[in-house]
Design brief:
By secondary structure, this protein is an alpha+beta fold. The protein is built from 7 helices and 11 strands.
């Protein structure tokens, strides 16, 4: 497995309100979290960092005692996100300037060749398999709802003035209902997690093209491409590439001349 992750402030913002956590390749718990904060000066930064920290701690502290079955692991994801929601919500009530803060939150836990995913907001998770990229999450946005209801087209959604208005986020209410899914994570599959600082700058086919053309450092290439298109928001991307490492070759003993 190859893991790449990076966050960038972009070209137009004074502060990076994205936060993320990415497990290392040798970590026992393969956990990946991404949050895109919103709400006033420092509010978004605090909301996203609290959400990521709370989710990570909850899962890492409870994973060992969780039955390794589909429903139990999905419940762990839900419980962790509900806990993070409560932590952000309670923090927002501590200071007046934080009262409207919130954040998106995406969680991906890789276990036994499966991806267990939790989602709230309009950050996204994609899976690339056999030359096809598929979005696994549905935006919790006003515009996405219009598309689902057949009131506007996907093309109209891309330029809609309210495209960033969320209908569900972490920390805005005391309760939240995350979407949870579980997908096979096969050899050579790639999972991409990203904030809307990427997807607002690049369409899905453009993201896929960048990934195809930049296998050495795809995360940096995605961020650079988004910045070239304007970089109007913070940009965060995590790539989980299910490639098998080549075994290290054992050093061969040199023959000694007799």
């Amino acid at each position: 497995m190859r893991i790449l992750a990076k966050s960038d402030i972009g070209k137009a913002r004074d502060m990076n309100q994205d936060s993320f956590y990415a497990a290392q390749e040798d970590d026992e718990i393969k956990l990946f979290i991404l949050a895109d904060g919103m709400g006033g000066y420092k509010g978004g930064e605090i909301a996203s960092s609290v959400a990521v920290y709370s989710t990570q701690n909850y899962i890492c502290n409870n994973f060992e005692n969780t039955p390794k079955e589909k429903e139990a692991i999905l419940k762990l994801i839900v419980d962790s996100m509900e806990y993070a929601n409560l932590m952000v919500y309670e923090r927002s009530k501590e200071e007046e300037e934080l009262k409207d803060m919130g954040t998106t939150l995406d969680v991906c836990l890789i276990y036994n060749n499966k991806a267990y995913i939790g989602h709230v907001g309009d950050s996204r998770i994609y899976r690339i398999r056999k030359n096809f990229m598929r979005r696994l999450t549905k935006d919790h946005s006003y515009v996405e709802q219009l598309v689902q209801d057949g009131k506007i087209t996907k093309e109209e959604a891309d330029i809609h003035p309210k495209k960033n208005m969320l209908v569900k986020a972490i920390g805005c209410n005391s309760l939240v209902e995350p979407d949870v899914i579980y997908k096979a994570f096969l050899k050579d599959d790639i999972i991409l997690m990203c904030s809307d600082g990427l997807t607002n700058m690049l369409k899905d086919d453009e993201i896929y093209k960048v990934l195809l053309e930049n296998s050495e450092n795809p995360v940096a290439a995605l961020i650079n491409s988004a910045n070239r298109e304007g970089g109007v928001d913070n940009i965060t991307a995590i790539i989980i590439d299910n490639i098998e490492k080549e075994p290290e070759k054992e050093p061969q003993n040199e023959e000694i001349e007799k």
